[in-house]
Amino acid sequence: MPFQKTANAEVADIISLRNWEQMHGGRSFKSKTASVGRVAANQTKYLLSHCTIMASVAVEDEPFDYLIKPESAAFVNQNDDAWSLAVLQMSYRSFVGAFNFVEHFQNSRASKGHILDAVLRKIRIAEDVLIGYVDILVATDLVHTELVENIRSGKTKYMSMGCLTDLVICSYCGARCTESHTYCQHLLYNKGDFLFDDSGVPRRIAELCGHPSLPNGGVKFVEASWVGTPAFPGASKRSIVLDEWLGPASPYTHVASQPTGIKKAASIESACSPAMLAHLNSRLKQQVSRK
């Protein structure tokens, strides 16, 4: 069974859709999709939110590519999870078409929208130390009036990504784990600590998610949730993009009545199925022209 991971980030302010396109250029969705509005007849209105949802860490060269460079140790999230830049480059586009939830309640009927776009920004934080930030464009259906008003007012301003990973690697000894019961001693007892390696370099102990040797890095991003408490220290405050964008209606978001006070899902069994995610991706591709 794959591991399920989450991490939080902050969003703020309202800018124009053109600003998003100017910032990300050809990497973003094309203007004909959103600005011109070439969408299906079955439509609804969304609030588009721009969030820097996560960042990578920098790792050493092979065969020591499980060691996190100390300069990037701060980009390990509060859950002691991390992603190398190589893995993020291979997997970040899986955000596109994924669901938008509240507090990781991963049931398709509780979806508040979906992710329209994702881009990767590379930043050099020191000599020979390159990391990547992932920006996502989240569409929240305006039918969820209380949530949308809270986003507009700033009462709700944090987001959290959710992903599945086939493998985690100890960032100290390189142990590869596919089940939690196979964790090494470092992952069991030292996560979040710094231990000196054989060269005297302090290394942050974390779970590195995925590996470049796996298809798509062994990581799939399946959702982004609105949450109350931030947990991702490496994310910078970004923006919300556009109010009342007219886009394709979704059977999972445009429901007149939604439960309130949703709590975080307790187990992975309540998560949306891969088949459901594939269905939504297919629907979006059919309804939104990217030509």
Explain what you see.
It is a single chain. This protein has 291 residues and is of the alpha+beta class. The chain has one domain. The protein contains six helices and 14 strands. It has helices at 17-24, 31-34, 85-91, 145-153, 185-189, 274-287; strands at 3-10, 43-55, 81-82, 99-102, 113-126, 129-141, 158-165, 168-170, 176-177, 194-196, 202-204, 207-209, 219-227, 240-248. The strands form three sheets. The protein has an eight-stranded mixed sheet with strand order 1-7-13-4-5-6-2-14, sandwiched between helices. A hairpin with a 5-residue loop joins strand 8 (168-170) and strand 9 (176-177). 44% of the residues are buried.
Secondary-structure element order, N to C: EHHEEHEEEHEEEHEEEEEH
The residue ranges in which pLDDT falls below 50 over 5 or more consecutive positions are 26-41, 233-237, 256-281, 283-291
Strand content: 25-35%
Structural class computed from helices and strand pairing: alpha+beta
Rg computed from alpha carbons, rounded to a whole number of angstroms: 19 Å
Number of helices: 6
Determine the oligomeric state from the structure.
single chain
Strand order of the largest sheet: 1-7-13-4-5-6-2-14
Largest sheet: 8 strands, mixed
Work out the helicity level.
10-25%
Shape: elongated
Rounded average pLDDT? 77
The rounded distance between the terminal residues' Cα atoms is 37 Å
Number of strands: 14
**How many domains?**
1
